[in-house]
């Protein structure tokens, strides 16, 4: 297990607002595949460099099992790394590239080559051992970098945007491959990415970072269905969650979210504590939880279709309030059968209990999240 305890990293001295990493706590189980996900500059690479030992935390502790490793040198950490620019040694053959970390550790040449061959088989590049990096495709170079990181049998594999240079198709192949290798070898893996689809697809757990802090650390479905705050909710999901400003009000015995365009009655089992009455909230609903309904439906909200985008598997409809009271558009996903054109009126409703309420008086905390 890897444990990060209250890690702080300040690059340029202790000035206010100067923390690249700001009190980070994280536990990663042995054999687990974890992604660090967040916008540019949120501290992902910095965190990975501290795990690798290439950067020292300003404060806080890093443990591998129960051993404090803050002052352990990178070479003594038994870590394999693949960075965004995977920088193979251009003058060396693939074989020598993969064997390099072993040779560095004074493993005899013959043995190092044998192990390079074994690792290259796992990555299906054993037919390329005599080539130079310049004679390989991007995806093959990528796999050589992975093989080099794996050849010394690391306990921990650190990957920083390892697929960012690959085209979309190859990315999918390489990502499946990374996951397979990781499972087979059982190596604890931490991947840094800003590609949410990638993170959600291959990870056991994802840590969402913003401003050097963890917003939420959970399995992908938990993050998607139960975001703890507005940041996580709006960061994850494509097309993004609809967010509509409203206030919590009490009306004829019901609690409602009153927006400028509609009033949404909260079901009895989603009622909030009385202290929230009057609060300013964002009402969140994902596009696939918005459905087209009949005009006569008691929950129907009338909208006007603004744009229809064909996604292949369905359509993304962007609809606006015909009375211009609602300040945002509403996105919904429909199937291909539904014929809709710009300018047409539609009636929509929200699937039961799929909405979220984010407290705008409390940093966007999800009022319905019970952890
Ligand atoms: N060597 C450095 N000196 C000073 N500040 C730095 C240094 N490296 C990074 N930073 C700052 O620390 C913060 C976190 O940077 P980091 O590289 O960890 O971000 P990241 O999450 O990896 O972003 P990206 O997705 O763009 O790679 C940023 O504000 C960055 O400007
Ligand atoms: Mg980075």
UniProtKB/TrEMBL annotation:
Pfam annotation, one family: OB_MalK
Record-annotated ABC transporter domain positions: 2-236
UniProt xrefs under PROSITE patterns: ABC_TRANSPORTER_1 (PS00211), ABC_TRANSPORTER_2 (PS50893)
Protein origin, superkingdom: Bacteria
SMART domains the record matches: AAA
Alphabetical UniProt keywords: ATP-binding, Nucleotide-binding, Transport
GO molecular function, one term: ATP binding
Gene3D superfamilies in the cross-refs: 2.40.50.100, Nucleic acid-binding proteins, P-loop containing nucleotide triphosphate hydrolases
Protein name: ABC transporter ATP-binding protein
């Amino acid at each position: 297990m890897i444990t990060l305890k209250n890690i702080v990293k300040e690059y340029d001295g202790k000035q206010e607002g100067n923390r690249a990493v700001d009190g980070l706590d994280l536990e990663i189980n042995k054999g687990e595949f974890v992604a660090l996900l967040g916008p540019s500059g949120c501290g992902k690479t910095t965190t990975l460099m501290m795990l690798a030992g290439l950067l020292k935390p300003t404060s806080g502790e890093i443990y591998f099992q129960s051993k404090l490793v803050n002052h352990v040198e990178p070479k003594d950490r038994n870590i394999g790394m693949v960075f965004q620019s995977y920088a193979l040694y251009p003058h060396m053959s693939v074989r020598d590239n993969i064997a390099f970390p072993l040779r560095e550790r004074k493993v005899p040449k013959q043995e190092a080559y044998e192990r390079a061959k074994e690792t290259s088989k796992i990555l299906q590049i054993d037919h390329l051992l005599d080539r130079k990096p310049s004679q390989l495709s991007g995806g093959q170079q990528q796999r050589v970098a992975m093989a080099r990181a794996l050849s010394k049998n690391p306990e921990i594999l650190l990957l920083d945007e390892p697929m960012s240079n690959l085209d979309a198709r190859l990315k999918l192949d390489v990502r499946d491959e990374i996951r397979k290798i990781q499972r087979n070898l059982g190596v604890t893996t931490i991947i840094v990415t800003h590609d949410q689809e990638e993170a959600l697809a291959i990870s056991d757990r994802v840590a969402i970072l913003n401003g050097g802090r963890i917003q939420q650390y959970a399995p992908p479905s938990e993050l998607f269905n139960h975001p703890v705050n507005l940041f996580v909710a709006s960061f994850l999901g494509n097309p993004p969650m609809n967010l509509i400003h409203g206030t919590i009000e009490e009306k004829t015995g019901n609690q409602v979210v009153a927006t400028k365009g509609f009033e949404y009655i909260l079901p009895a089992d989603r009622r909030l504590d009385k202290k929230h009455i009057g609060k300013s909230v964002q009402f969140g609903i994902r596009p696939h939880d918005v459905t087209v309904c009949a005009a006569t439906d008691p929950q129907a909200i009338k909208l006007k279709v603004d744009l229809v985008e064909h996604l292949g598997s369905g359509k993304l409809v962007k609809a606006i309030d015909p009375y211009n009271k609602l300040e945002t558009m509403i996105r919904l996903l429909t199937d291909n059968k539904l014929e809709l054109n710009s300018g047409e009126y539609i009636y929509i409703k929200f699937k039961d209990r799929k909405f979220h309420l984010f407290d705008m008086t409390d940093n966007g905390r999800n009022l319905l999240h019970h952890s």
